[in-house]
Backbone:
């Protein structure tokens, strides 16, 4: 197998086919037919080169399964046209806008085919509903979310209570559910359907007993992640969150996050980045903050809410491997100097001196270990000194005594919304089942193997 083929989503011969087939007057039906043909061609290429579907871990329940590659979507083809200079940036934006309008008007799916409602829980390449299988944008999502929450709101939360939200989307969600609750006429069919959806979604969630044999910190956070995922599925189906979910869908089309060899972005990395870190407006509001603002207003178990808030506030970081303590890894973060004894969910143990790009969750209670919740990215061909130099460059606009305050913001939000996933995508080198290898630096394009400069 030629070097680099394993991680490619678009093979060179596919790009050549698109270049030959493309014309400015190509209709959407013709592009959809091309995408269908090229999807089949990709299957044949991967089969001929012995590239097997990778094992992926479901971000909700943690189950591993072989994930079949998704078909080539219309927007994926548009991104290839732009990224390979077949169309200009202005032409791409015009095409993208035209496609969104055409898709909305004709009720097509991402592949240009007639859209069909997906079952509430689809057993496909994974065990749970895909993030792109959205529920209907109606009151069923509101009712289902109310049903999913385990407790009513505290008595002090009356209709007169001021709305407490961290951003405009969270405020709109709370207003929507308050309007729904204040209606004089009760829609029993919506309540029944909402209850059914809530129960179906909860069926995929594991209980505490299911994680009895796991590391206790890891098990607790997996339960919290499952519940956050369920809540996010409800709010992500509401029109009020379109400004948050549209950028997520755009990124999913471009990156196709399923883990190597399909994509350098693992499913768990993409879940946390898209739900907890991606703030399209730059004000810090994410799908997770908006969702948890609503969950807090609806009411749920305070311990579960605290755990989900920990997930929401988490971020990636640059960590130095300080050694092993049995099956645990000691990690110290650059800049902050925070040190944790960690359980690594992927099982990777590593070696002293390595630099990891990882999401580390703190111990849920005193006496337990921290958790490296996603598969770690190992930064090779570089050392602590190199990464300190990068951080000095990235934080150069701020006084040295402010670096500890600004560093967390850089690691969570980047210098632009796609700063960190784009770095992962372009810095990918190789992978093993428990670790992914990256090289290069976010601010030096020539250092990243798959940057546009090197492609």
Residues:
């Amino acid at each position: 197998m030629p070097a680099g083929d394993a991680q490619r989503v678009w093979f060179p011969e596919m790009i050549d086919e698109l270049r030959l087939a493309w014309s400015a007057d190509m209709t959407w039906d013709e592009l959809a037919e091309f995408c269908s043909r090229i999807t089949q061609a990709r299957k044949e290429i991967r089969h001929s080169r012995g590239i097997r579907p990778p094992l992926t871990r479901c971000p909700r329940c943690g189950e591993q399964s072989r994930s079949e590659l998704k078909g080539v979507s219309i927007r994926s083809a548009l991104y290839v046209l732009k990224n390979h200079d077949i169309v200009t940036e202005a032409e791409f934006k015009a095409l993208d806008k035209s496609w969104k309008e055409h898709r909305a008007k004709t009720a097509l799916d991402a592949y240009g085919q007639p859209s069909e409602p997906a079952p509430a829980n689809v057993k496909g390449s994974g065990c749970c509903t895909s993030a792109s299988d959205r529920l209907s944008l109606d009151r069923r999502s509101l009712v289902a979310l109310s049903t999913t929450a385990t407790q009513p709101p505290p008595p002090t939360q009356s209709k007169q209570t001021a709305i407490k939200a961290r951003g405009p989307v969270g405020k709109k969600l709370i207003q929507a559910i308050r309007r729904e609750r204040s209606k004089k006429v009760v829609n029993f069919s919506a309540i029944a359907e909402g209850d059914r959806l809530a129960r179906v979604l909860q069926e995929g969630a594991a209980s505490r007993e299911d994680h009895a044999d796991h590391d206790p910190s890891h098990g607790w956070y997996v339960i919290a992640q499952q519940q956050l995922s369920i809540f996010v599925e409800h709010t992500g189906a509401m029109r009020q969150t379109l400004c948050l979910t549209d950028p997520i869908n755009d990124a999913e089309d471009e990156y196709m996050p399923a883990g190597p060899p399909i994509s350098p972005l693992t499913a768990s990395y993409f879940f946390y980045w898209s739900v907890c870190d991606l703030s399209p407006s730059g004000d810090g509001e994410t799908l997770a903050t908006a969702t948890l603002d609503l969950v807090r207003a609806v009411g749920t178990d305070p311990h579960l809410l605290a755990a989900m808030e920990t997930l929401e506030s988490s971020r990636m970081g640059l960590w130095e491997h300080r050694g092993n303590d049995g099956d645990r890894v000691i990690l110290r973060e650059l800049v902050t100097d925070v040190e944790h004894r960690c359980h690594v969910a992927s099982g990777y143990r590593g070696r002293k001196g390595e630099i990891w790009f990882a999401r580390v969750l703190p111990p849920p209670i005193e006496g337990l270990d921290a958790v490296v919740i996603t598969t770690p990215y190992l930064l090779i061909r570089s050392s602590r000194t190199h990464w300190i130099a990068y951080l000095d460059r990235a934080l150069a606009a701020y006084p040295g005594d402010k670096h500890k305050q600004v560093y967390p913001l850089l690691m969570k939000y980047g210098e632009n919304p796609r700063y960190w996933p784009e770095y992962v995508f372009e810095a990918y080198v190789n992978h093993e089942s428990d670790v992914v290898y990256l090289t290069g630096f976010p601010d030096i394009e020539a250092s990243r193997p798959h940057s546009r400069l090197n492609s």
The beta strands are 55-57, 64-66, 316-325, 328-333, 339-344, 355-361, 370-372, 377-379, 428-432, 435-438. The longest helix spans residues 28-48. Residues 139-312 form one domain. Residues 1-7, 117-140, 152-160 have pLDDT under 50 and may be disordered.
